[in-house]
Each structure stands twice: as structure tokens, then as C-alpha cells.
Here is the input.
Amino acid sequence: MIPGDLDSYVEYFETWATHHPDVKFFCFGSVELGLAYARSLPDFDYPFVWLEQPVIQSTDNGAAHFNEVYLTGITVLLHAPGDDPKAQVQAYSKALRILYHLQTRLKKDRKESQFTFDWNLMKKETVNQLWADNHFGWRLEVPLEFNINPLLV
Here is the structure.
């Protein structure tokens, strides 16, 4: 079981991204960091996976199980020329395939009781082009629930 602390949460996604053959860069942080921050780093490349800071909701099931529900988004971005619709569709498609790989991993780890989540609450949406600067991709929203009993000592 993965502990419900923030370090373990970020490490889970960073490990997945690091081992994914198509992902070239991973970043965790707030929206305020933005793409400018990531692109300023020397090892930046695409596809880029961005794990947002979560909203964390504490829950108690009444049977001495205390959990944290991490409400978060994870975005996969690629860059494509603004005047090449075919390249844009390919970027969207590749980003979506990467998120499908993540969903496969999440499903496997849920089955192994690393954490829990409701598959029906996952939501994917395209990245808004108003701020994306020729970046194309998808954002997956998923509520992950971790047991925090070992942390409450």
C-alpha cells in the first residue's frame, strides 16, 4: 500500500513517467509555475507530463480507516506547429495514448490495493488552446484515495 503522504504521491507519478518510453519530462507543481518554468529547465523535452498540486480531502469511514483523497489533474503535452492540423491531431492522439497507459497502471495498482479510486469519476479534457502556446494534449482528472492510518501516530 502506498502511504498517503505527498512525497509518495508525487513519487508514484514521477516513477511512472520516468519509466514510460515516450515521456521525456516530468514536472510537479502549481499552475502558476506554468510551461515557461518547465521549458526553462535544461533537460526539458516533449512529451511533457505535468502533475498538478492536488486538493486533499480527508475522509473517515467510521471504522477506524482514515484516508486522504487526492483530487488532482495530470496533463500530457506535446508541441505541434499551429499551422499543421495533422500534426496537432497526432499530438492529441499520442498524449491520449500516454494517458491510457497511465490508466492501465492505475487500474493494476488499484487491483493490488496500492490505493483506491472510482473509475467512473475519471475525466479527460483537451488542453485549452487559449494559454497553451501551440501545445496540444489532454488533462486527466482522477481522485485517488490513500489510507493514512500509519501516518497518524
Notes: The chain has one domain: 6-151. Residues 6-151 form a domain with the STM4215-like fold (CATH 3.30.2000). The mean pLDDT is 90.
